[in-house]
Amino acid sequence: MIRSAGVQNLIVVFHPVHGVSYPESPLKGRVNFTTYPPRLDSPTIQISDIKMTDEGRYICEFATYPSGNKQGVTNLIILAKPSNTASTVTVQAGTAPVIVAHCQSANGHPPANISWGASVGGNGTTRTENQDRTVTVKSEYWLVPTPADNSRDVSCEVSHRTLSSPETFPMKLRIEYPPQVQIVGYDSNWYLGRTNAVLTCQAQGNPPPTTFTWRTTSGQMPETVQVKQNTLTVLKVDETVNTTFICEVRNRVGTGTDQVSVMVRGE
C-alpha cells in the first residue's frame, strides 16, 4: 500500500490475492507499479505526466501478520527549470539611484539565485513571487547614473539546480545625457591678417548631438567668419574677431555650451 503524505491520499494498493487497485486520488491514471505483477520485495512505482502538485512525502506501508504494519518514507522533489531573461533600462544621468537593468528567473522550483557583476558601483535588489508552487525571482540593478557609465558592462548571473552551469546575461548600460562641449583650435596667436583660423566645437552626448549653434557675446557674427555645423572658420582675422565665441549644442535630452575669448594681436 502506497500513500502520499500530507493529506494522506491512498494512491495504490497491492494484495497478493486480490491484485492491484487504484483508489480515487490526484494520481489516479498516472501512477503504476514498474513491474506487473508487482514484487513484494521491490514494489517500485512510477508517476507519469508529473505535476508540481505531486511533490511531497510518500509512504510505502507493508501489512504483515502477526508483526503488524511496517513503512518506509521517501520525499519526492519536483524540479522546474525556470525561464531566464535580462534587459537594460534607458535612463538619464542624474543624482539619485534608479533601476538601470532587470533580471528575471520565472516559474522555477526551487527558487533560482540571481547575482550581479558590473564595472560600476551600483547594487542589486531581489524579490520573489510564488505562482502555482513555482517561484519567479526578480532582481533590479540600481545605480546613480553618470555620463561616464554609458556603455559600461553589467551582467546578470542565474544559478539553478536544473542548470549544469550558471546562465549569464552580459549587457551594456544605456545612460542618456546632454552634450558635453569643448571648443578647440584657439592657440592665442590670432594676429591681424591671419587667414583660415579655425575653431572646432567638439561635443559628446547620448543620444548624439543634432544641432550646433554659433554666436558671439556681442550678438553679431563678424563678416569674415564662416560657420559650417561644428566648425567656425575666420577667413581673415581683423579687429571684429576680438570677441567671445560661443558654441551651443543640443540633443533630445538637453543643451551644452562652451566659449572661447579671442584676443587679436597686431600684425
Structure description:
- This protein has 267 residues and is mostly beta strands.
- It folds into 3 domains: 2-76, Immunoglobulin-like, CATH 2.60.40; 83-173, Immunoglobulin-like (Sandwich); 178-261, Immunoglobulins (Immunoglobulin-like, Sandwich), CATH 2.60.40.
- It has no helices and 22 strands.
- The protein has strands at 2-4, 9-15, 19-21, 31-33, 45-47, 56-64, 68-76, 83-88, 91-92, 98-108, 113-118, 123-131, 134-143, 153-159, 167-172, 175-184, 195-206, 211-216, 225-228, 231-236, 244-250, 255-261.
- A 5-stranded antiparallel sheet has the order 3-2-1-6-7, with no helix packed on it. A 5-stranded mixed sheet has the order 9-16-17-20-19, with no helix packed on it.
- β19 (225-228) and β20 form a beta hairpin.
- The chain is rod-shaped.
- Keywords: Disulfide bond, Membrane, Transmembrane, Transmembrane helix.
- Residues 82-172, 179-263 form the Ig-like domain.
- This is Ig-like domain-containing protein.
